Amino acid sequence: MVSWTRPLKLEIFHSSECKRCEGLKPRLAEAKAEFGDAVEFEMFDLADSSTWPKVQELGITRIPTIRAMGDEFFVGVPDAEDFRRMVRYLIQFQNSECVVLTAPHAACPVLNDKHLCDTAVVELSRMIEAKLKEAHRSVKRLVGDLARSVCDLNRWDCRETVFRQELARVMGAAKVALLLDVHSFPPEEPNWGGYDVVLLTVANCDQELMRQMKDELVQAGYKTGIMQGSDFNDIVTSYGQQTRAVLIEGNERLNGDWNDVATAVCRVIVGIVSETQTV
Fold first, then answer.
1. What is the pTM of this model?
2. Which of 2, 33, 241, 245 counts the highest number of beta carbons within 10 A?
3. Residue 79, pLDDT above cutoff 50
4. Residue 96 near residue 277, CB atoms below 8 Å
5. Contacts of 122 (CB under 8 A, 6+ apart)
């Protein structure tokens, strides 16, 4: 039996005057019976005016609402099996070593002819996520949707964006063993265009892990370089102080053919991150 050192705290927003909220009681009782001390409930009764500042701060508009790790997971009374799966997953995620994948500019629209988005790494980051899950490693993938011309999500002055706030919540709630910041570059890039993959050295990055990834990628047949990057990358330079962090760039000519790149990268990650603990 696993001893959970970090109980999962669920924030329950309800009202003693809300008949529908009564449907939560069996869900919470079932979760407590199954997961015991691994889950805790913090109840906020909106019939008590002292809860209103918290409700306003979080923007709660409907009840019942269930929150965990800074996010809303259910609005209304959840299905019993859905609620059980959610609680199990969050307990495991919070108590297992995990990998955080960030792709800050992957989902934004491509604007004119400038390299404002890294749409090629949607596929690469998704493949890395899938391979880590197949290897029973916990992973959280965060994909940004802003072009660099709107806000460069890697920079400190974009910390108030939704993407960066979600990243901060995950980094604060999970036992992060590695942060992998994923980007891409166009084939015509003058300094890197001759490479398939580039690993960038910035403040607080894990250079030993970068060398291991380079060796695996070279062995897989990819021309890989380690280059000096910019310390303006606030994601790696900031969070690299609390966990291992690597910044990787893939050549966009490989788009549609990332499988072996993802395999090589994951081979290194699996060697340093423990398997997911199970409830």
1. 0.77
2. 245
3. yes
4. yes
5. 103, 106, 107, 143
